[in-house]
Amino acid sequence: MSKLLDRFRYFKQKGESFANGHGQVYNTNRDWEDSYRQRWQFDKIVRSTHGVNCTGSCSWKIYVKNGLVTWETQQTDYPRT
């Protein structure tokens, strides 16, 4: 059966109920959670600034995985003046 039809079958499954029927436990495949967790893993964090045309010289935390930038967040620990 196709994956699409298998997904529709999910809504017909009866799971074990608990809390007087307010919750149900399903034994479903949760492999997608591993790929989600791997998306946010990184090898190291480096500090950098943006490109040549950026005049603000803002500091960024660069998250690197396998030598590639995976994502970045702006650094917030600027020195006081």
Automatic annotation (TrEMBL):
Molecular function GO terms recorded: 4 iron, 4 sulfur cluster binding; metal ion binding; oxidoreductase activity
InterPro entries found in the cross-reference section: Mopterin_OxRdtase_4Fe-4S_dom, MopterinOxRdtase_cofactor_BS, Nitr_red_alph_N, Nitr_red_alph_N_sf, Prok_molybdopt-oxidoreductase
Keyword Glycoprotein: no
Obligatory cofactor(s): Mo-bis(molybdopterin guanine dinucleotide)
Record key words, sorted: 4Fe-4S, Iron, Iron-sulfur, Metal-binding, Molybdenum
Top-level taxon of origin: Bacteria
Pfam families registered for this protein in UniProt: Nitr_red_alph_N (PF14710)
Keyword Lipid metabolism: no
A GO CC annotation given for this chain: membrane
Stretches assigned to the 4Fe-4S Mo/W bis-MGD-type domain: 43-81
PANTHER family reported for this sequence: RESPIRATORY NITRATE REDUCTASE (PTHR43105), RESPIRATORY NITRATE REDUCTASE 2 ALPHA CHAIN (PTHR43105:SF2)
UniProt name for this protein: Nitrate reductase
